[in-house]
Structures are given as C-alpha cells and as structure tokens.
Amino acid sequence: MLKIHLCPSPDLYELYHRSGAAVIVVDIFRASTTIVTALSNGAKGILPVTTTEEARIIGTKNNYLIAAERNVRKCDFALLGNDPSEYRPEVIQKKRIVFTTTNGTKSIRIALENGAKEVLVGAFINVSATIDYLQKKQYKEVIVLAAGWKGQMCMEDSLYAGALVSILLKNNRGDACNDGASMAKDLWNTFCSDETQRLDYLKKCEHYKRLEENRLANAVPYCLKMDTKEGVYGVTGTLKGPWITKIQ
Fold it and tell me: What Gene3D superfamilies is this protein classified in (predicted)?
C-alpha cells in the first residue's frame, strides 16, 4: 500500500523528509503543469535553477532556451515564461530549456538538496501515469511537496495530494499517511472531483486571483484537467546539473 504525506510548503520540507520516499513536486499554477507540457511536446530536457541570474548565464553560455518567471510574469530577458501554452512543439521540440520560476523550481532544488531518493514533477494532467509509475517502482511512501507561494500554502497544490489519495483509495492501492493528506482528500472528494466543480472551487484561491489580476488566468482550466498526458517526468542524470526528462 502506498502512503501519501503532504508537505504544504517547501520551507517545511526538512520536517517531512524520509530517506526511502519518492518526492512529487507540485506547482499546479503553473510550473509543474508547464514542465509536463513542455516535455510532452518534445523538449529534450529542463534544467531547474533557483535564480534568474543563473537562468540567464547558463542559458546564454550553453545556447539553451531560457524560461524565466517572477511574480507570475515572464522575465524580460527570457524567451519563455511560465504558461503551458507557450511551450508549443514548434518552439521547444528537441531543445534544452533552463527554467526558473517563483516557487516551483525552488521546490525541486530543495527536494534534491535534501537527499530525496527520487524527485518527480506532478500535475493533474498526468496524475494517473505518476501513480502507476510509483507502484511499478514499489515505493511505500511518497511526499507531495506543494510549492505554494513564497513559502505559504496554496490550495491548488495541496489538493493534488487529495487527488492522489482519492485515486489510490478508489482502487484499494494506498491511503493518506498524515493529517494534511487526509484533509486534502476530503476537500478533493467534497469540492473538486468534478472538473467544473474543481474550477469553480479553485477560483476562490489566492493564486487564481493573482493570475486573474495579471490577465493570465486563461491557463487555469488546462492546469485543472485530469490525465491529458501519459508520461512521467522526473530528475535524471547530472549533465551540468539535474535535468528533468521523461522517465516513463
């Protein structure tokens, strides 16, 4: 049986770390959804970095596509921002991308730097494929690391853990292992299991309003769709850094 722990903020990750557990980093609005989309559309790999300066220098030096976002807006020096719709096959196919975002890429680096056994990138759009991979690898424990917003919890990221637990329970394959995951499961089942209901519920969250104020909320319905992608994506290899690639 797969046990799910929810870590609601990257600032708390050290309290939740378990040496044998896989970590799924989740930033639904929008970094993890963008990463899954880019790799599904043929990007060769994505290098997550913490700072905009790293992205600019590494991208320029190595002729990578530069993707950078801060406070939901694309950085001026970058070709790409943090919206899934930007990552069309004709733009990113067979390209390497260096990527920095306000919350998601920082969370990936925190998981890696604290010794996570394996780091996956999770989104609603590939949740079932990710569950199948975890069970194929025979993991017993999984930590959902919710990227949140600048250290604060975000509803949409924590609810990913609820979806994970709900799907596992439905198939008698797993359960929640801490209060956060259990609460997220109850919220998911009550308010979010239906796509229209999910969108209406998450329009109340702070990050939706942040995107709406910046005229970027058009990405939200796509980010909340379930299982539109079949691949699994995680950190593999260290070619000048930890690259995120398709692993299944």
Answer: ComB-like
SS3 95: coil
Pair type for strands 65-70 and 45-48: unpaired
The two tokens of residue 145 are 């690391």
Nearest one of 201, 187, 196 to 225, comparing CA atoms: 196
Nearest CA to 83 out of 141, 134, 27 is that of 27
Is residue 247 within 8 Å of 234, Cβ to Cβ? yes
Stretch (H or E) spanning 13: helix 13-16
| Cα–Cα distance for residue pair 125/127, rounded to 1 Å | 6
- Comparing CA positions, the residue from 147, 144, 41 lying closest to residue 97 is 41
Q: What is the pLDDT of residues 39-60, one digit of tens each?
A: 999 999 999 999 999 999 999 9
- What the block records as the tokens of 203 is 């329009």
Quickly list H helices, the chain. 13-16, 31-40, 52-62, 89-92, 104-113, 127-136, 155-170, 179-187, 195-202, 206-213, 220-223
At residue 173, the pLDDT reads 75
Q: What's the rounded Cα separation, in Å, for the pair 89 and 87?
A: 7
Q: Provide the CATH number for the domain formed by 2-246 in this structure.
A: 3.90.1560.10
pLDDT in tens, 148-187: 999 999 999 999 999 999 998 887 777 778 999 999 999 9
* 236: CB partners within 8 A, 6+ apart: 243, 244, 245, 247
Instruction: Kindly list the domain boundaries of the chain, sorted by start residue.
Output: 2-246
CB 135: neighbour CB atoms within 10 A?
Answer: 15
0.85 exceeded by pTM: yes
Structure tokens at 149: 């917003």
Predicted local confidence at residue 222, as pLDDT: 97
